[in-house]
Amino acid sequence: MKIFHSINEFHSGKKTILTLGTFDGVHIGHCSILNKLAKNTDKGKYESTVLTFFPHPRMVLEGKSDLKLLNTIDEKIVLFEKIGIENLIIHPFDERFAQLSAEEFVKIVLVDQLQIHKIIIGYDHRFGKNRTANIDDLTTFGLKYGFEVEQILAQEINEIAISSTKIRTALEEGEINLANEFLGYSYFLSGTVVKGKQLGRTIGFPTANIELGEDYKLVPKNGVYVVQAEIEGKTIFGMMNIGFNPTVHGKNRTIEVHFFDFDLDIYDQQIQIAILQPIRSEMKFASLELLTKQLKEDQDFSKHYLQNLHK
Fold first, then answer.
1. How far apart are CA 176 and CA 182, in angstroms?
2. What is the rounded distance in angstroms from the CA atom of residue 80 to the CA atom of residue 69?
3. Are strands 254-259 and 234-243 parallel, antiparallel or unpaired?
4. DSSP assignment, residue 216?
5. What is the pLDDT of residue 157?
6. Closest CA relative to residue 2, chosen from 50, 71, 55, 72
7. Of the candidates 69, 165, 192, 267, which lies 20 to 30 Å from 219 by C-alpha distance?
8. Most distant pair of Cα atoms in the chain: their distance
């Protein structure tokens, strides 16, 4: 997949089949559009192209500096590549770009720069200054400038009103199973393994502390979860704690993973943690002994869940 970091960087010897949007989460609703895009190139006559934006338009237009996103840019690139998209354009979104009228956007960006042959778009997509234009306007512009418009109807998107906002809400409420169902894959966190207080070692549950690379990445509700990671080519399972470690009076929110049957040194490694199943909410225990007892129960729950998962 070719990656371009602005519309102006884009170049291709072919016309494009294009879709556009923020695609936060790259969820199953998005994938209905993206899979159709990837398969619509007329045997290579056209190139499948996605135009997305960063920062998220809501961060710019609504001043939502605290908006948490389901994917970092690097994570989103991985997900697009898995689908088989040929070109990904990540355009910087700013106030100036937001001032383009609908027709300016179509003529200058889509037609002149991106050379679209066809655009595939969701039924509810709105675009242009103040998001005033809709699918009917786009169809009119298509007739004027000579490109096709294909609309993805609501019922085609798995008959579910999937939205990134619903997924964010599910994660914030600890409803991992619902979020994963909407995403079509297990929600994951990407980060670097760093040294923590190493308290887990003293009670028989050593953990890898994960430091996220981007502060806008949404971290699910505090609690304990069954997780999976790929480390040095092997699939490793474990349980992850998100929270403040109240039993030992922790002051900072941390992400710690105890991997089962694993003792390699992975400090400073970049790893991806897929969240499979919630176990329980964060709890404060009266002693380390009670905490250790609960961790053993959490481990038993996790291993039982994994055994059933792989039957």
1. 10
2. 16
3. antiparallel
4. T
5. 54
6. 50
7. 267
8. 73
pTM of the model: 0.90
The b/e string for 272-299 (b: 16+ C-beta within 10 A; e otherwise) is ebbbbbbbeebeeeeeeeebbebbeebb
Q: Which residues partner with 230 through β-bridges?
A: 235
Expressed in percent and rounded to 5, the helix, strand and coil fractions of the chain are: 35, 30, 35
Rounded to an integer, what distance in angstroms lies between the CA atom of residue 305 and that of residue 277?
A: 8
Q: Could you tell me where the beta strands, DSSP code E, fall in the chain?
A: 2-4, 16-20, 47-54, 87-92, 116-122, 148-152, 188-194, 208-212, 223-231, 234-243, 254-259, 270-281
Mean pLDDT per 10-residue segment, the chain (311 residues)? 96 94 90 90 94 91 85 95 96 93 96 96 84 92 96 62 85 96 96 83 87 94 97 94 87 93 89 97 92 96 91 66
Give CA–CA dist 199/122, Å, rounded: 50
Please report the pLDDT score of residue 58 as a whole number: 86
Q: Give the Å distances, CA to CA, from 169 to 61, 138, 184, 206, 246.
A: 21, 31, 16, 31, 24
Q: How many angstroms separate the CA atoms of 95 and 231, rounded?
A: 41
Query: Residue 30 carries which side chain, given as an amino acid letter?
Result: H
On whether the CB atoms of residues 239 and 298 are closer than 8 A, the answer is yes
Measure CA 254 to chain center.
20
Per-residue pLDDT, 240: 97
Extract the tokens encoding 72.
């970092």
Q: Tokens 């609908």, residue?
A: 102
Residue type at 212 in one-letter notation: L
